[in-house]
Design goal:
CATH superfamily of the largest domain: Bira Bifunctional Protein, Domain 2
Structural class: alpha+beta
Helix content: 25-40%
Radius of gyration: 17 Å
Mean pLDDT: 94
Number of domains: 2
CATH class of the largest domain: Alpha Beta
Shape: globular
Low-confidence stretches: none
Largest sheet: 7 strands, mixed
Length: 235
């Protein structure tokens, strides 16, 4: 593990995010990576179950950012960049999808879940290394689909953690600008038509990018909508 960051590894947890929340409540300051070989109650965004098959990466980072709390959501982009760069070390065809997914060949390889605990932030990252669920609404994939021998969770984290630290340091010092540029350089579907699903509504338009806070810019007819949250589908 890189200097200044701790690491706690578990054989099994309910979820790495839950363990990080418990540690934060107990006074752990971090930065600390928490991993588990298995999760009995892994969660994705909006409370969805995250399939937690052994051989995949389940990792959570507990940190206490120094920048203002309204900016913390930008760290989902930091996590996406670091995860994408780790995956690109093993396979081509890697891209990021707004707001917090990593794709391989247009299918979901990894997801990211941020949760705030007082003055602490919990960043959960799940990566399909060895296996993936077959029946998700947005099609999933694993690195094992693309390469003969996928990395172990330890090998994957060994690349992801220092990459995150580098981009996190950039964000702490320089804000979202460099992160935004790096994320857009890896973005899937930029300039193409997408469908954005919001609670109670859907919008179809051209994906124009993200703004200075990370919100999606969607050109629908002659109007550009600014969407702070939602789910994106291509085609």
């Amino acid at each position: 593990m890189i200097p200044g960051y701790g690491l706690k590894e578990f054989a099994e947890l309910d979820s790495t995010n839950q363990e990080a929340r418990r540690m934060a409540m107990a006074g752990e300051n971090g930065p600390l990576w928490i991993t588990a070989s298995r999760q009995s109650a892994g969660r994705g965004r909006r409370g969805r179950e995250w399939k937690s098959e052994e051989g995949n990466l389940f990792a959570t980072l507990l940190i206490r950012p120094s920048r203002p709390k309204p900016e913390w959501a930008q760290l989902s982009f930091v996590a996406a960049i670091a995860t994408a760069d780790m995956a690109a070390h093993y396979s081509p065809g890697i891209a990021v999808k707004w707001p917090n997914d990593v794709l391989l060949e247009g299918r979901k390889l990894a997801g990211i879940l941020l949760e705030t605990m007082g003055e602490a932030l919990v960043i959960g990252i799940g990566v399909n290394l060895k296996s993936h669920p077959p029946d998700t609404e947005f099609p999933a994939i694993s690195l094992a689909t693309a390469i003969p021998t996928p990395p172990s969770p330890q090998q994957a984290l060994g690349l992801l953690a220092p990459g995150f630290a580098e981009w996190y340091d950039s964000w702490e010092k320089s804000g979202f600008g460099p992160i935004r540029n790096a994320w857009l350089a890896r973005a899937a579907g930029l300039g193409s038509r997408i469908r954005a699903r919001l609670p109670g509504a859907e919008h179809v338009g051209v994906f124009e990018g993200i703004d200075e806070q990370g919100a999606l810019l969607l050109k629908e007819n002659t109007q550009t909508r600014i969407l702070a949250a939602g789910e994106v589908f291509f085609g």
